[in-house]
Each structure stands twice: as C-alpha cells, then as structure tokens.
Design goal:
Length: 192
C-alpha cells in the first residue's frame, strides 16, 4: 500500500481489510500487552487512517490521545473515523521538528519507521523519546520482511542506542503486513 500517494485501491484495501479485519485482531493483542490504566496521555506517531487509534481512544476513557501524521489525506480520514471520541486531538506535520510542550506516557508507533529513510530512523526515535514523561514507554510494531521492512537487529539497535530498554517483544504475522516485530520499550536508567 502506498501511504504517501494513495490511489483508489489503497483506500478500498485500507477500509475493507485493515480497518474491518486486520487492525481489530492486532489491536486486541497490543492493548493487552500494554496493560493500560486508561488515564494515560498517549501519542500515536504516524496514525494514518486511524486503524489503531480507534482502539487506543476506546481504552483511554480517562486519558487522551494525540494522533500525529504528516499526511493530510490520512489524518482527515482518521478525524472522520474517530469523530465520536472527545478524548482525541490531531496534529498534522513532523512533530520531531517542533518542540512540543507536552510529555506522553506512551508513544505508539505501528508500521511507520520502516518507511522513513534509514538515515532518519534513529533521530526520529531519539526525538520521540524526548517527548516521554517520566516512566514513559514506546510501543513499536514494524514489518521485518526482506522485501518491505527492517531487520530485527536494526529495530533493537535503534531503540537501545536511543536510551530505551526492552520490556517485552514478540513476533506477529498478519495479512497485508506479513511478519512484524512487536516491542514495548521504557526509558533505561542510562537513557534518563
Ligand atoms: C504504513 S502507515 C501506518 C498507519 C497506521 N499507524 C497503521 O498502522 O494503520 C504509515 C503512516 O506514517 C505516516 N508518516 C510517515 N512519516 C511520518 C512522520 N515523520 N511523522 C508523522 N507521520 C509520518 C504516513 O503518512 C502514514 O500515514
């Protein structure tokens, strides 16, 4: 799927497969893994059409979700899809370039970093880590397929070099996405 320049097939696939079938199944597992209290301040970095955001918003009944994307097209889709959630706000643009006067308990990243140029991946994670509150965590789910994805060693290396320590990880498989690395990281003592 081409997220930057979507065509009609991308939009249909996103709606029929991702939104209706794939994301609900994946998000049930991810939310269980995250063990949220429901009052956290969460950012979803690269929310796309909001397939994951919808499930996070439901879980944060006493918290808040900030959906961030650089694509106006996909952020508008997310806004429409989630108009009934009062605890969600939307930010268009590259938050890693702007100083945000806000800290997050969790930054959720699903299928975003592998699409960035290799030279930008580490600095993006470093910038996001700087937006974490004390005790904050990063959820990262990235494809690890040879053709479209990034190696597990790169994901783990990038997180550790950014001062994050792994709490938990596993490997998942889904239609359209293929094999993914799913990990939860918190700020390491050295990374403080
Ligand atoms: C493959 S989609 C994944 C969307 C969503 N996370 C999901 O799993 O359905 C990647 C998204 O990341 C966004 N993106 C890419 N670079 C970004 C950046 N620097 N800041 C924010 N969003 C970005 C793209 O516009 C796209 O919507």
């Amino acid at each position: 799927m081409t997220y930057e320049d979507p065509n009609i097939m991308d939009v249909i696939l996103e709606k029929l497969l991702l939104d209706m079938f794939i994301s609900p199944r994946l998000m049930r597992k991810y939310i269980k893994m995250l063990d949220l209290r429901g009052d956290e301040n969460v950012m979803e970095f690269g929310c796309g059409a909001g397939n994951s955001s919808r499930w996070l918003a439901k879980e944060l009944s006493r918290g808040a979700l900030t959906c961030v994307d650089i694509s106006e097209f996909w952020l508008d889709k997310a806004k429409k899809r989630m108009r009934k959630y009062a605890n969600v706000r939307y930010m268009l643009g590259d938050v890693t370039k702007n100083e945000m006067n806000e800290k997050f308990d969790l930054i959720f990243i699903h299928q975003v970093i592998h699409d960035l140029p290799k030279s930008k991946r580490q600095e993006t994670i470093m910038a996001l880590k700087g937006m974490l509150a004390k005790g904050g965590r990063i959820f990262i789910g990235e494809p690890i397929n040879m053709g479209h994805g990034m190696p597990v060693s790169e994901i783990e290396g990038m997180m550790e070099s950014s001062g994050m320590k792994e709490d938990n990880h596993y490997f998942d498989k889904a239609l359209l996405i293929g094999q993914s690395y799913i990990g939860v990281y918190s700020i390491s003592e050295q990374g403080n």
